[in-house]
Design brief:
The complex is a heterodimer of chains A (101) and B (421). Chain A is mostly helical and 101 residues long. Chain A contains 5 helices and no strands. With 421 residues, chain B is α/β, with parallel strands linked by helices. The chains are: A mainly alpha (101), B alpha/beta (421).
């Protein structure tokens, strides 16, 4: 059940990405999976002292979240946030974020 | 059929929106109307994201500029110019959000209509209330609007911020600064303690014989362990914190003498900063959306007010369960709310959201600490996900504190670009 929903969200994210590229507008929230839009508060279109995520692949983001969750990768804050999301949720969020440009 | 346009066009200054309405009148009439009251981190964000969903949005905000509270403590300490805190609504208007530069004075919940100060009315299909906070000038004896000109609150950024800064600059070395911190809930839980830190930074560098006393109406505060340890390490005995059970609760102020009266005695200040009790912005109180606590209970999935379906409340005015009244939380709620409103306008059910909060505080310009949380609806409230979130580690090298101070700057740049840029 959960898997199906994730796949749907991922496809939705990809479609939105195509729309975005053609329209040159910010991505719709319509397909944003739970938690994803909060990420944009720190990670925007342009990098600052914090990275932009749009030039990362979905698997890069998903792997980073997994490593933050397990503690394999050190962080000042992302380790605390990653623990609030399941692997499935992280995967959906990663797909949506990587579709933003 | 209801007229979906505002009754007087001249109040609307979104040129892009006007052009769009003329270009496609049929579409403009068919588009659902959402009115957003309040152009802060919550309201401005929500208006922008709703407009991108094809919703016709009017943002009601009387001020021409927004002056940001996050980082305003650095302005007080002379580390930053107020210009860095000041944003216009130009980009939001250019995007196609109509902006009504007036105060909302009345909400007719049955007719679904907002009345503005000049008696213009704005009909809505859904209303988003983001009125922020008002100082409660009846809660603390002696502290009213006039008193705030002598003992500034500086809890809304702007002239009050500059007044407190000027008073600190005018104070003699060896003076006493007193900060009164309120009981929960209030805007920016770590804010009074970041303020104490950065004022101490100013004093240490310019007036090192001075002292700072925090009189607190509570016995515990946000990031307490981190602040307390850092104060001792960096500022020695300069900062004295007096909690509730040690007599810290201020029960009266005498502005002319700059005296803070507590349950245990009196403190005379050379510079006094009263952070008074607060409540939701006035329109939320007057319209009955807030309850007897002065804040607005909401549904954690749709952000609809418990008091009124079709009216959504986000940001500091809302009772958001475990989420603090922070700019990050307001912005996160605004996006989740925009998503819910857009889905509901299409007749579908809003998805269960998940939200993040992150708050950085500066102890010095190069010493940052943070608190984070992840939230989901549970038992009718936005509730902390267990075992996630929390504060920066108690023991960390200076490089970690410096990194967090730099991330605070990065966060500010990113979020203000999303909201106003």
């Amino acid at each position: 059940m959960r898997k199906i929903r994730t796949v749907t969200t991922t496809i939705g994210g990809a479609l939105t990405a195509l729309l975005f590229v053609s329209a040159g507008q910010a991505q719709s929230l319509r397909d944003a999976p739970p938690g994803a839009s909060s990420c944009l508060g720190c990670h925007g279109a342009q990098p600052t002292s914090l990275p932009a995520l749009s030039n990362l692949s979905a698997s890069d983001i998903e792997n980073a979240m997994e490593q933050y969750r397990s503690g394999a990768r050190e962080a000042t804050l992302m380790n605390r946030i990653a623990k609030g999301f399941t692997p499935e949720e992280s995967k959906a969020i990663a797909a949506w974020l990587s579709a933003k440009k | 059929m209801r007229d979906t346009r505002p009754s007087r066009r001249h109040v609307i200054i979104g040129a892009g929106a006007a052009a769009a309405a003329f270009a496609a009148p049929a579409l403009a009439q068919a588009a659902p109307q959402v009115v957003v009251i309040g152009g802060g981190y919550a309201g401005a964000t929500c208006a922008r994201f709703l407009q991108r969903e094809g919703v016709s949005v009017t943002l009601v905000e009387p001020s021409a500029n927004y002056i940001s509270c996050p980082f305003s403590n650095a302005v007080i300490a002379g580390l930053r110019d107020i210009a860095q805190q000041t944003f216009t609504y130009d980009a939001i208007a250019a995007q196609g959000v109509r902006i009504a530069r007036q105060a909302a004075t009345k909400i007719d919940r049955d007719a679904k209509r907002v009345t503005l100060a000049d008696a213009t009315t704005l009909p809505y299909d859904r209303l988003v209330l983001a009125p922020g906070i008002d100082m409660n000038f009846t809660a603390l004896p002696g502290y009213d609007q006039a008193a705030s000109e002598i003992l500034p609150h500086a809890w809304k950024a702007g002239p009050q911020t500059l007044l407190l800064r000027q008073q600190l600059e005018a104070m003699d070395d060896g003076g006493t600064v007193v900060i009164s911190a309120p009981a929960n809930p209030f805007r920016c839980p770590p804010g009074p303690y970041e303020r104490a830190s950065l004022i101490a930074w100013y004093l240490k560098n310019h007036k090192p014989k001075s002292k700072l006393i925090i009189l607190d109406a509570k016995d515990a505060f946000s990031k307490q362990g981190l602040f307390t340890a850092a104060w001792k390490e960096i500022y020695g005995d300069m900062i004295e914190w007096v909690g509730l059970s040690a007599g810290g609760k201020v029960v009266e102020v005498k502005p002319r003498e700059k005296i803070f009266v507590t349950e245990f005695g009196e403190h005379r200040a050379d510079v006094g900063n009263v952070i008074p009790p607060q409540r939701a912005g006035r329109i939320a109180i007057d319209s009955g959306i807030a309850d007897q606590t002065g804040w607005c209970p909401i549904d954690p999935v749709t952000f609809e007010a418990r008091a009124q379906a079709g009216v959504h409340v986000i940001g500091d005015a809302a009772v958001a369960g475990g989420m603090p009244k922070s700019a990050f939380a307001a912005n996160a709620q605004a996006k989740a709310c925009a998503q819910a409103v857009a889905v509901m306008l299409r007749g579908a059910q809003a998805p269960e959201p998940k939200l993040i909060n992150t708050c950085y505080s500066l102890v010095t310009p190069d010493y940052g600490i943070s608190v984070a949380g992840v939230y989901a609806p549970a038992k009718g409230l936005l509730t902390d996900i267990p075992n996630a979130g929390g504060v920066s580690p108690a023991k960390a090298p200076a490089s970690v504190r410096a990194a967090e101070a730099s991330y605070a700057e990065g966060w500010y740049k990113t979020i203000t670009t999303e909201v106003f840029g």
